[in-house]
Amino acid sequence: MKKLTTLLLTGVMALGLAGCGSTEGTTTTGTTTTGGTEAGDDVVRIALLLPFVGDQSYMDVTNNGLNLVKEKYGDQVDTVLVEMGRDSASWETSNLQTAQEGYDIIISGNFEYEPYMIQVAAQFPDIAYINFDYSDPEANKEAGNIYGMTYKGEEIGYLAGVVAAIKTESNIVGCVGGQENPSLQNMLGGFIQGAQTVNPDITVVTGWVGDFNDTAKAKEIAGNMFDQGADVIWQCAGGAGNGVFEAAAEDDFWAIGVDSDQYTALSGRPEIAAKILTSSEKRCDNAILDAVTRYMENDHTLPFGDMVSMGVAEGAVGLSENENYLNNMTEEELAEVDSYEQMLIDGEVELIDCQANPDQFEVLVASAA
User: Which of 90, 217, 271, 367 has its CA 20 to 30 A from that of 10?
Assistant: First the structure.
C-alpha cells in the first residue's frame, strides 16, 4: 500500500477538479461537439467521450484523467470532454462527430458504450484510440487503431473485502452491486475472496441494484443488509452507491466506496462522508495518463491491438488512504491491511477471476452465505 500512496494522492488532489467540465476547451452534451481551443500543429488534441460526469465515482475519476494529462503536459496538449448524454441513441453520432473534428487521440470505453467507439474507430484509422476500460478484447484488436486497458476487478474487490473483514465486529459484511454483469461479478467475487482470506468463516451478503442510478434502491438494499447484521458494506454501484452512504449515515455502519476516493468526493456532505471508511479505487485516471504518456514518448504512436490488464502493482488499483481511513483504523488494523495487500503484490495470493470463470461467482456467493 505504501508504494502506491504518492501516485494515489496525486490523483486525489486532481480529483477535486473532476466533474466540473473539461480540462480545457468546451464541454459538450449530447451529439454536438465543438472541439477545444485553437491549437498549433505541434499540439496534441485529445477528446474524452463519456455519457456524463458528476457521479462522484466512476465517471468523475475517468474525467480526472484529462486533468492529470493537462497537469503533466500543459500547453503540449489540448483536451476536451465530450458528454454524449445518457441516451445511447446519441452515442454513435457523438463518436462520429468527434472523430470528424480531427483529434489526434480519442479516449472512451466501458462495456456500455465501447461498441460505438469501435464502430467509428474503424472509419478513422489515423486517429489513435484509447479504450480506458475495455470489455471486448477481440473487437478492440480487430479495429487496428485501439490501445485497450482494463483493471483487475478481483483485486479491487479483494482490497475492499480485506478492509471489511478486518473492521467488522459482527462478522457479517455486505456488498451492493449495480447492474449485474461479468465485470461486476468479478469485483464482488474479489470482495468475497478478500473477506474470506482474513476470516474463512465470515458471512458475506450480496445484492444488486439493477442499474447505476437508483440511489433509493441501493439505500433499501443496504438497509436490509444492516438489518441482517452487516456492519460494513461495500458499494460497487456507481452513482446509485450514494444510497448506500445515506443508509450508513442513518443506520450508523461503515461503508466502503469504489472507483474514486469517495470520502473526499463527498466532503461537501460531511455527515455522509464521515461513514465512508475508505474506497477501493479503480484508477481509470492513472490508466489514461499512462496511455497518453506512452503516446507522447513514443513518436505519437501506441502498441495498437494490445490489451493490458492492470492492478495494484501497476498503480491502477488501490485503497484511499485519506484522513478518515487513517483516523478510524488502528495501527494494528492498518498494518494487517498492508500485509494482505503486499501479499497480493508479491503474487502470494491467487484470486479467482470470475469474469474469466463465470461459473465460480455463484460458488463464491454460496460459500460465504
Answer: 271
